[in-house]
Amino acid sequence: MRRLREMPGRLKAASIGVMLGLLLFASPNVNAQPQPPKDFVAVDETAPGEQIPAIPLVATAYGFIWVVLMGYVWSLGRRLRKVEGELAELESRRKPPFAEATGCK
Amino acid sequence: MSAFFRIVWIVVKKDITVEVRSLELLSTTIFFAITVVLMFSFGLVVEGRAVPDVAPAILWIAIAFSGTLALGRTFERERQNDTLRALLLAPADRPAIYVGKLTGILLLLALVELVLVPLVGLLFNAPIFAHPARLALALMAGSVGFCAVGTLFAAMLVRARSRDVLLPIMLYPMTVPVMIAGVRGTAALLQPEPELAIAQFWLALLATFDVVFLTLALWTFDPVMTD
Amino acid sequence: MTRPTLYMLALAAGMFAMAPWIINAAPNEATMGLVYKIYFFHMPSAWMFLISALVAGVASARFLFFKKATADGWAVAAAELTVLFGSFTLVTGPLWARKAWGVWWQWDPRLTSSLVLFLMFVAYLLLRRFGGPGSDKLGAGMAIFSMFNVVFVWVSVNYWRTIHPPTTVVPTLPVEMGIPLWYCVTAFTLLYIVLLRLRARLEHQRTRVDALYLAEES
Which domain holds residue A1? Predict the structure, then answer.
């Protein structure tokens, strides 16, 4: 919270005060909120003939998660291997000069 | 405190002076806003008459599009002459620079809205003179919220690549509450029988959003703009 | 990969492999039948989605305000996982809703907030990928704003309409349904921790590679 301390004191106080004031102003108006409509009908009241088959939906849902998850783990593994390879190569390029300079291998 | 507002005033005066010379930003942004409204009119007119209750939505979308354009081009101007770096190097309070740029853009957007609102009222038969003060307040609160976030992001993106498309990508999801509250509040005011209590509720929400995001922007402007 | 991470990965993988049997053993729900079983993966995904957004916001704040360089790696990792688990939530949700509510999508507070949060983190990833130098600070600023914004999106949409099941559905679940649910929550949490650590490690290694390249040039 260094930023808060560094802000000019009056500006900080003003912004906090205005925030609180507006929240207080807003609270009585909560009663004026528009009422949500109550006209939704639950699906289970429809006839069985109109029901949508569940298995494709469930299969798609789980299938999607599995496929994308596998794909992500594979992609992450590939990226990690690539970076670690680069890192190893860079580190090995740095070491030999020291070994040569000190004369030990 | 007075030093803060002096810096703000200097930045605003600079922007106004530069703009007044050519009026490039103002004229092109106003014309762009008009074309946006016209595009919507052509899209939403059925049997020669506008679909009812679309005026608030079109108004706010036009404001959002024009605002994004104005933001991008204001900072493009700064980037071309590298004046933003000069501004940041100056021994001025950084939040003051932010507020100065914000005020300049708000003034520009206010002038654009002065043209937009009567146009939308005309084309979509919206009763804009029923409660003009409340309507003006709602527009101002929404514009401040939109521009507060927009100025920060546009300033942040000045040195970034792909900044033209990144600004709307970042800005539009972030200003969803402003859009929702602005459209709902304006819609409540432009009804045949205006619902003043509901409009007041949305206005209060807009005001809270403005304060919170202005404060956040003031906090983050400095660390974000530091190299 | 460190030893604890390896163990957690093995455990998470094992739990996920077992999950189909455990979920299958749960009874069908009275009104929704089979389709409610999407919930067992949908809810943990939603929790990880929201938690990850929070982690990204906090890490970004630490990076931006407290200048902790490694925090940026955690922020990127958390942002990527937010998008991953967000995609799970936003795909499984409508699939369930299609049967349960009859529509694919509704503009109620929870759905809208989730969608907007998801979009904000997609924008974050696009910014990090295409924004060029300096986009780490920009992204951090954006992530902090995203965290605060979720509240506002929620409140503003809340006064429209609500048909999402209330959160209290969890405590009132019968035991036979509660066990698979908490099993899946555990599996997802383990998975999240493992993925976060691995992804953050990737980011930190990339930073080291960049630093080494820079040292080579000079």
Answer: 1-31
